[in-house]
């Protein structure tokens, strides 16, 4: 085996460690990264857990000591996360930024659809067994996100004279979208929970990277040329974006 590979491979290393802060015990997920130069901690907003990144030559002893010394930080950050909103009957889900209440329609055929009650309340109807509600809502939102993002990305690609080769929908925690030089775009499905102008801006942003693979002044001029609501969308993401990570999360 190559010497370099030995630096990263730890076949018997645990994937998590437990630390105590006050009367609480927290699980910390471990991951090694070949480019890491030091130990770092971050909170995964949708998984609701701490992740400790270790350098290639890091040790479990040092990792646990680092996590324990930052127990207060972990507790505070986890405590500040927005309240979880699992995909269950009664939960309000902001489909395209508009609140829809999940309603179980066990006796009806189909999967998931929207309706508007006489009162004006918007609802997200889910057919089938109760045990399938969460998965069906999740799948529905991912499909809607893909549909809206494909349409927006195609529109902007035509306007800029570029080609999107592939579009993926994921649950990215650190960024809302990404672009490769090969023409592949990736987006968080959670954008379907934001107002439509936010999803539209993210599509324009990533497609613009096919023209300028950077965040230079020229890149932002490209974005502004095709998207009129850049600042409005950026402001919404800064103030409300983190709230999107609480949906579909178990309490």
Automatic annotation (TrEMBL):
Cited InterPro entries: UTP_pyrophosphatase-like, YgjP-like_metallopeptidase
Gene3D superfamilies given in the database record: Metalloproteases ('zincins'), catalytic domain
UniProt cross-references to CDD domains, sorted A to Z: M48_yhfN_like
Record domain YgjP-like metallopeptidase: where: 40-239
Transmembrane segments: none
Organism superkingdom: Bacteria
Identification of the protein by name: YgjP-like metallopeptidase domain-containing protein
